[in-house]
Every structure is written in structure tokens, then in C-alpha cells.
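USER: Fancy drafting a protein?

ASSISTANT:
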Amino acid sequence: MRVCCLSYLEYLFLVCCIFMILSGAEVAGGGIFVVVGGALITYGLLTRETGSKYAMNKIWAAFYALAIGSILFAVYTAIMGGIATNEMYIAIASLVAFSLAGIGLFLFLFLTENNRCKKC
């Protein structure tokens, strides 16, 4: 006899039913936390010293986080713009606008990076 305990499949079915009631923009709206989380994880990983590499300068790591956050935000706005308006050109325009800035900043940082190896 079960006492108010849902199995994994029952829980998954319940979540799918809830998301089928919501619109696409409401379901994808939580993706902004992926953008913020991706930027924070990038900053945290780059400012950590490992056994073979020194930690990156905090300002350079913040710029890297900004570049990755901008690229993730481009993908997020493209998905949200496409879902909300059902127009593909709006999604592509928002993707291009933010991703160009993020890719440009990332390439600049990558090409001017200093060597951080401890044994090199």
C-alpha cells in the first residue's frame, strides 16, 4: 500500500502535463538562469588556481564571463523571440546582434591571453 508517494514516471507525467498547459514563452522563461549561471561558472572556474595553471586575473575573468554570458543571452533571446512571435527572422536578428558582440569579445580575449602555466 502506497502512501502519497509518486513514482518517477508519475512525477514526470505530472510535470509534462503542467508544461503542456503553459505557453512556450512561459516554459522557456526560466532559461535566463542558465545565462546567469553560465557566466558565474565561467568566472569561478577561471579565477581558480590549479596544480598546473595560475589563476586568471579577476578583470580578465570577468570579461570572459561577460563574453560567455553574451553568447548565452543571444541564444536565450533567439529562443524567446522565436517562441513569442513565431517569426524566424526576429529570432535570427536577436541571435546575431548579441552573439557578434560576445564572439568578438571572446576572440579578442583569447588572442591576447597570457600564458598561465606554472611549469612553462
User: Anything to note?
Assistant: Residues 39 and 116 are 21 Å apart (CA to CA). The longest helix spans residues 58-85. The chain has one domain: 24-111.
